[in-house]
Specification:
By secondary structure, the chain is α/β, with parallel strands linked by helices. 50% of the residues lie in helices and 16% in strands. It contains eleven helices and ten strands. Strand 1 (5-9) and strand 2 form a beta hairpin. The longest helix has 20 residues, at 81-100. The N and C termini lie far apart (41 Å). May play a role in fatty acid biosynthesis and insulin sensitivity.
Length: 264
């Protein structure tokens, strides 16, 4: 079976991972989830990768889980329960790997992102979309509440906006997705890759060590109570100041010269 994830690494360490099953609207089948999880895991360990961009071939970023695959599993003696549990666990592990990846992960959306596809967008650290893109968590329309997409969605937008998407299930526009905080910015399709690449290139110039420290701290402190969050973040800042890149960055700023990162 052909690979469902294309990859390209630029000279400055920007890795593009492209969902490549446009005939199935880049559905998050068990195979697609496995390939994407492996690609994220490999990138997390690679010293050559500074930033990851997720995009897709075809008119859909991702239409969510493969409903034909789910329907076929109902023929099993347990009506698909074992497969459904495995699929949900694998998908959750892949989404969690994106959040825990020490490299910033950027979604680039030019088309629809629905259900688990919308979950994938919400799981990324940043997201940029064409102004014709649309987003939805439409499971409620087919008797299947988008409970797992809800986890990522509710951690990115306010409760009432998340519930509106989950309870109604309608498509929302890219401008509305930007307004509620699901994505960062929109542009026309022709300019999308250039805009995303410019953001990725800017991030790739930073110390990879500093980025990994900051990303981990961001997600760790989110669910802490205020005093605990400040205590935790203060410890992170102290450790960061004692890294070689922390010392180099401050020295370079004081001396008015570009820093030379060692990622140490």
């Amino acid at each position: 079976m052909p690979t469902q994830i294309e990859s390209h690494l630029s000279d400055n360490g920007v890795l593009r991972l492209t969902l490549n099953n446009p005939q199935r609207r880049n559905a998050l089948s068990e195979a697609m989830i496995g390939e994407l999880h492996a690609a994220i895991a490999n990138a997390a360990e690679s010293s050559e990768v500074n930033v990851i961009v997720l995009n897709a071939n075809g008119p859909a970023f991702s239409a969510g889980h493969d409903l034909k695959e789910i329907t076929a599993a109902r023929e099993e003696s347990d009506k698909g329960r074992a497969f459904f549990a495995t699929l949900m666990n694998k998908c959750a592990a892949m989404m969690t790997a994106i959040v825990h990846c020490p490299k910033p992960v950027i979604a680039e959306i030019d088309g629809i992102a629905t259900a688990a596809g919308c979950q994938l967008v919400a799981s990324c650290d940043l997201a940029y979309a064409s102004n014709t893109s649309r987003f939805a968590t439409p499971g409620v329309n087919i008797g299947l509440f988008c409970s797992t997409p809800m986890v990522a969605l509710s951690r990115n937008v306010s409760s009432k906006h998340a519930m509106e998407m989950l309870l109604i299930g309608d498509m929302i526009s890219a401008s509305d997705a930007e307004r509620i905080g699901l994505i960062n910015r929109t542009t026309d399709s022709e300019s999308l890759t250039a805009m995303t690449q410019a953001v990725a290139d800017k991030i790739a110039e930073k110390s990879s060590l500093t980025l990994s420290i900051g990303k981990e701290a961001f997600y760790c402190q989110q669910d802490m109570e205020l005093a605990q969050a400040y205590a935790y973040a203060s410890d992170v800042m102290v450790d960061n100041m004692l890294t070689k890149d922390g010392e180099e960055g401050i020295s370079a700023f004081v001396e008015k010269r570009p820093p030379v990162w060692r990622n140490e």
